[in-house]
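Predicting holo structure, guanosine-5'-monophosphate bound.
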Amino acid sequence: MASIFSRIVAGEIPSYKVAEDDKFFAFLDINPLAKGHTLVIPKREVDYFFDLTDEEIGAMQIFAKKVATAIKEAFPCVKVGQAVLGLEVPHAHIHLVPMQSEKDMLFTNPKLKLTAEEFAEIAQKINSCLPQ
Ligand code: 5GP
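Done. Tokens:
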């Protein structure tokens, strides 16, 4: 059974896509800590982030860097924080969260409730800041 994130990549479950290449996919977290909170995943389904190959981690980090740069341009912040947890969804992913302060990275914080229109607008805004 494919993970929920593999089903998102396959288009079987809708998502607010931010970026994609042949190996990686970035989309908005559905329970965001902040506007612009994005997940970056490898298309190859691996549960534990540190079970990815060295090459995959390197390439994924470079892909995440491009997305983080676009997030920072779209949603001005002090820095974009990065976290790997993976306790809920068994498909390796990097969280990218625009931070105004350290507390914005607390995963116990209440999550934002956004409308479909807001999610779509955020994804489009980040996507438009990516190099074309
Ligand atoms: P973690 O596995 O890193 O602890 O958390 C998984 C993250 O994936 C959570 O922040 C959660 O909101 C997000 N998430 C879980 N299911 C979905 C989904 O179906 N769509 C999207 N866009 N995000 C999800």
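The helical segments are 4-9, 54-74, 116-128.
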